[in-house]
Description:
The protein has strands at 3-7, 10-13, 18-25, 32-39, 46-51, 58-60, 68-73, 78-83, 92-100, 116-117, 121-126. The protein is globular, with a radius of gyration of 14 Å. The model has no long low-confidence stretch (mean pLDDT 96). By secondary structure, the chain is mostly beta strands. The strands form two sheets. Strands 2, 4, 5, 6, 9, 10 and 11 form a seven-stranded mixed β-sheet that branches. The chain has no helices and eleven strands.
Amino acid sequence: xxxxxxxxxxxxxxxxxxxxxxxxxxxxxxxxxxxxxxxxxxxxxxxxxxxxxxxxxxxxxxxxxxxxxxxxxxxxxxxxxxxxxxxxxxxxxxxxxxxxxxxxxxxxxxxxxxxxxxxxxxxxxxx
Length: 127
C-alpha cells in the first residue's frame, strides 16, 4: 500500500518555526516531484511549495517565498517543509503530495497533477 504520512504540525506563536516531514512508503518516490499544499477552513486547497525529482528545482507560492524551504532526502523517501517566521495566515491543514515524472525539473503547482496524497497535519499559528 502506497502511503504518505506527514508529521511535525502543531501550535506555534507568530514568528516561530516548525518543520514538517512527509515519509513515503510502499514504493520509492525518487522519480516523483513532491509538494506541500494547505487548506484553511472555508478556503480552497492552496499550493505552498514543490520540489523536482532531482531536488534542484523548487517552487513557492508568493506568500511563503523567503520564509519556507522545501527539501527532500530521497534515500529516506522523505520531503521536508521548514517554515520560519510563521504568520497567523499560515494556519491550515498541510498535506504532502507526490507525482511520478520523467522530467528531472518539473515542479507542478496544480493539485490534479499529483497522484499520491497524505492525510495532512494541522499547523496553528497564534498571536
